[in-house]
Amino acid sequence: MVKAIVGANWGDEGKGKVTDMLAEKADVIIRYQGGFNAGHTIVNNYGKFALHLLPSGVFYDHTTSVIANGVALEIPAFIDELKGLTDKGVPMPKILVSDRANVVMPYHKLLDRYEEERLGKAGFGSTKSGMAPCYSDRYAKIGFQVNELFNDETLKEKIHRVAELKNVLLENLYHKPLIDEKELYDEMVRQRELIRPFVADTTVFLHNAIKEGKSLLLEGQLGAMRDIDLGIYPMTTSSSTLAGFGASGAGIPPYEIKQIYAVSKAYSSCVGAGPFVTELFGEEGDELRRRGGDGGEYGATTGRPRRVGWYDCVSSRYGCAVQGATDCVLSVLDCLGYLDEIKVCTAYDVNGNITKDFPHTTDLYNAKPVYTTLKGWKCDIRGIKKFEDLPIEAQQYVDFIEKEIQCPITLISNGPAREDMIERKSKL
Fold this sequence. Notes:
The protein is α/β, with parallel strands linked by helices. It has three domains: 2-99 and 198-260, Adenylosuccinate Synthetase, Chain A, domain 1; 102-195, Adenylosuccinate Synthetase, subunit A, domain 2 (Orthogonal Bundle); 264-423, Adenylosuccinate Synthetase, subunit A, domain 3 (Adenylosuccinate Synthetase, Chain A, domain 3). It is built from twelve helices and 20 strands. The strands form five sheets. It has a ten-stranded mixed sheet, sandwiched between helices. The longest helix has 21 residues, at 152-172.
């Protein structure tokens, strides 16, 4: 059976913890899209970790972690991340890297940074991790798959061909140093030796695992609002963040994906540019940012302060729908225990029209939140294991959101640790 864990909103929803928990009963955990541009925070017996490329199942010795063909692979970052685990006492995980994954080349990160600099205030809020150039090259068929690094003759030829193209941009648009072909070739030879022990035909491996009846877990990066097709375009990531892409990005049959968990925070948070309807500013926003997450709302990759706001049922309903969610996970409920009242956005006012449908980006800039105010529970709920033991106000908050987003909330995170999770039977 294949399950998927994805984000319902803007990313940073708490997917890492959920994956870490569900990985305990999984045989294979798969990263199928994205790259080093986002991170999952996990707290366990080894300490606190921000994973970027590695699947969240790397802390279990019974699992195999897979970086599949849909991932943008930055090889040095992958090696550094592995070393960061083992340096903290984590046993070396069993991990496979697809021979069809596209490689983030050194010039991808440079081009990403140069373009953001050129655009200035009109930039897309890139993490400058090289994602857009890497995925652009993938679809332009001038990217480098992992397998291509191991053929010296074709590698040199392709580097020459691609350098000719990129150098036109570097010289005439960005006015930056050109690609040195020999230097780039030597670097990729170095990188291929770093990645060699992990390279495998992961498509064959995953198909065999399914035939053997093993449990597979797809781990998505970012959230529905950052999807390249259905997100707040163009302030999106450069790959599909949807569970449906898990089939293509992992190389497995789509009908094998039986359960999809969409994770959504009990309030809203966002890293990066673009419209964010329920955003809070001033002291109100600062207080929520300070109390939120596992140690404040700051990006796991960039360290940038996250934008925060009230829970947005409009975006979450849409996010769960496009993810095809069978279950919703409501994370960090415990962070709201300081509030007397909690607002929830139940609709948008778009140029005087009230709607519960999530609009396209152009209209989203004109959207204003329509709020319902609920009573807060004013206490610490960490450590509570049963839904019925939560304060009645907290139960009502969850029930209200579930009804509005029209997706069963079956898991509730009420603390940073792996065990701080409430399993719940939905009322839907």
